[in-house]
Amino acid sequence: MAIKKFLTSVADVYGYDNSDNLLFVAKTLLDSSIEVSLGSAPVRGGRGNQLQYIYYHTAEMKFTLTETQWNLEMLGATTGGEYDLGNYYVQENVTVTASSGSVTQTPLAFESVIYGWATSPLGVTQRVIFTGKGFTVSGTETSGVWCVRYYTANVSAGKSITIKASMIPQVVKLVMETQLNSADVTTNKIGMVQIVIPRGQLSGAFTISMKADGVSNTPLTGTALSYVPTATSTDACNVDSYYAKITEIIDSTNWYDNVYALSISGGNFSLGVGATKTLVVYAVPYSGASFKVSNSYLTFANGTGSGSAGISPTTGIVTGCAVGTATVWASITSASSITTSGCTTVTVVS
User: What is the pTM of this model?
Assistant: First the structure.
């Protein structure tokens, strides 16, 4: 029985680099959306400039992710920045005696001179120059607890990214997972949908908006790039590029539970002696569209005329052996009662 399905809420997102190293995880998203667009041009002609054909072109796929929490890894990926410990400004309370004081960490020069800023107990700020960790103050206040601010090395668990003026955003693989629900079942959640974008070019644009009454978000936008999968040894000529794969995973079920028959694509065919052909098999479900099944889930067998054509039981590769006709069958290995509704006839020619 077909049930109504609803894709709910936002997705959890995992970002990987070209070596499949995990770059970032975004699990507290405000928004995760995908927009697919396709340009078209009408072809017209004849009396009344009639519409003869529509030429489709310029397919694009864009994605937007907005992370609620601060996510430096997402910013690093979108700007192409490298991570390091970096340096930062720190301030501490320092006891000054007889115009002299010493900080706990090692001051560094932001450009050339190693200096900092010291604020006296009365709130007067002056610039001071460090010698090692020590400094001296001038003026009428020469003692007490001063607030000293200076530039030093980051030795904490934090890290830094540098946004270069000539930034090149990273190309990443995105895996997006979101919940699939239905009101027709008691559990409500029936599974999930996973969207895999093998190559996504990040835009390099982001905004950090800090407001008194709000929380800053970490946005990420980009465009999917064409991905060409590696050709298989049995189908080297039929390699189509794509932007993403969307997979529906239903809980506690098998992919063939809704399938009632198999169909071999192309029907009957001819084959030369010694030639081979890999069968392509589609599953026919009770509801929904037919879909292609990997031959690794199937078992193949010969029917009549096995002397004319042989078939590998695990790969579905048919080989022409001798002139004549033969039939071949396919069944689901884990559900052998589901087979091809009609066998395919192979005619072997000389």
Answer: 0.71
